[in-house]
Amino acid sequence: MYPxxxxxxxxxxxxxxxxxxxxxxxxxxxxxxxxxxxAYVLKLELIRKEKEGILKPTVIKEKKTDNNNLMSLVIxxxxxxxxxxxxxxxxxxxxxxxxxxxxxxxxxxGNLLGGIVIGLLYLGYTYWDLKKQRESTRENQAKVIHxxxxxxxxxxxxxxxxxxxxxxxxxxxxxxxxxxxPLEQILSGSGLTIYGGLILAFIVVYFYVKKKGIPPxxxxxxxxxxxxxxxxxxxxxxxxxxxxDWGIVNNLPKPSWFIxxxxxxxxxxxxxxxxxxxxxxxxQANYCRELVPGVFPTPVYETIISLIIFxxxxxxxxxxxxxxxxxxxxxxxxxxxxFLIEAIRVxxxxxxxxxxxxxxxxxxxxxxxxxxxxxxxxxxxxxxxLSK
Length: 388
Prior knowledge:
- The protein has 388 residues and is mainly α.
- Helix content is 61%, strand content 6%.
- The chain folds into two domains: 5-61 and 146-386, no CATH class; 70-137, no CATH class.
- A two-stranded antiparallel ribbon has the order 1-2. The protein has a two-stranded antiparallel ribbon with strand order 3-4. A two-stranded antiparallel sheet has the order 5-6.
- Helix 10 packs antiparallel against helix 11, helix 11 (216-241) runs antiparallel to helix 12 (298-316) and helix 13 (325-341) runs antiparallel to helix 14.
């Protein structure tokens, strides 16, 4: 496993564990790639739907304003100050930062002089840039914005709200750990509850696109493709870092029909970032534990299944004439996938209505039935138009 890139470089080039490159955490990098993959898919669909006339560009008029607004300058000075405050501290105490990047960034420690210097430099640049914009901006200048140009904003909004939702649901699922170590649970990058992220991101993005003139029902279909692709890439982060989102112990002998490599049947997650399992003999790194016996590598299973779901949705996306239908099909497939994978996955169980399921299974059942209800509703609502 590769809790950070120093472990990958050790395997590839024999370099020492936990060197300076260890600040690049594997889970965080693949999470960023997941958002980039989602953004790419979303942009392709926004471009396609505009070409087909489904989406329209919007025209806005930019009014000439006082860009030397004091508040804007104050905010940008604060941003520059925070960057300099932390950056100079990290440079001077890099070993502390390397051992705990998140804790260092959110601590009160920093370099006051560095913060003031960078803050003033950023303030000066901002003043110059705003003055330049003021001179070049015409009164009531019209500007055309194509839907695909909002890809970055949508992605950032979805990413931030998704991370908040994922962390919130994870805390709710592990309240005992939260009360014991609240700050650690809030700042932790592992153990994110994906359904919490999906739910909150959906709500926030829904209102954003509606405000910007993109029909939410069209956005739902595009989001289905973007989400499942991001999910597939994101689960690789769980697998390669070994963040604890693995399956139950698998002591079963590998069946003859299972033609894939042995590690896809049962895996030990050596050097896992969750620091779970037994010590690896002779290991000199910071992450020196592995699982004995091995477990089902469920993150890989989810990546494979998610790519299959994405391929199916991508294939049928142009054949479906009812807006919103693709999204509800996604909900059904995602609900089935997650419900089944939870049967061999490590997660707390809760007894409700006579069922002993995980939080994700209860939510996935909700996804499934909402998806079925949405498909039926849209079909009968558009039945007459389909027959024409």
